Amino acid sequence: DTEVTQTPKHLVMGMTNKKSLKCEQHMGHRAMYWYKQKAKKPPELMFVYSYEKLSINESVPSRFSPECPNSSLLNLHLHALQPEDSALYLCASSQDVGVGYEQYFGPGTRLTVT
Amino acid sequence: GNSVTQMEGPVTLSEEAFLTINCTYTATGYPSLFWYVQYPGEGLQLLLKATKADDKGSNKGFEATYRKETTSFHLEKGSVQVSDSAVYFCALNDYKLSFGAGTTVTVRA
User: Fold this and answer.
1) What average pLDDT does this structure show over A9-33?
2) Are B43 and A105 inside 8 Å of each other by CB?
3) Which of B30, B34, B44, B46 to mutate to test binding with chain A, by most A CBs within 10 Å of its CB?
4) How far apart are CA A34 and CA A36, in angstroms?
């Protein structure tokens, strides 16, 4: 089973709202990732968690706050977002971080900020 | 730094035609190479991978060979179907995934 699940599938939020995106995998992977994808563009890396610790933050604004409660779960907390943050947010996981490890992606959450 | 360059799209083909999507890369180390496919409204699916020079990845009729001498990882399929219509991303993994710009492929019946 190579499934990564994400909820919700769609989310509409105002600029003053607080919401969270959730991601789950049961493959025993120890690395998890958040990406942002704008229309007709490749995914852009936001955060990497390795063994439940944040290992990479790609200079993401503080209105995005990641959390890894355990090795199977990854959250992305959203607060005071801007309309330009509207995008598809993808979660991925891999067995470990490193050259040979392929990443498996979830279906994404399509976020619209109004 | 690492980078991936893919052929510009969009690519439009008829069913049963031969598909090639060119991909070249620049990397300082010895990366693994991947092709991902994204169908409309979905996330990315891993299509195939190669971890070292001369490795050939294959899946669902698609193939790509890791060519170190030409720093290339071109994707090919001998006979495409309408269901192959999607966006294809070439990517390299040298600790972080670096994606190409993506190539949109449309297959007409």
Assistant:
1) 96
2) yes
3) B44
4) 7
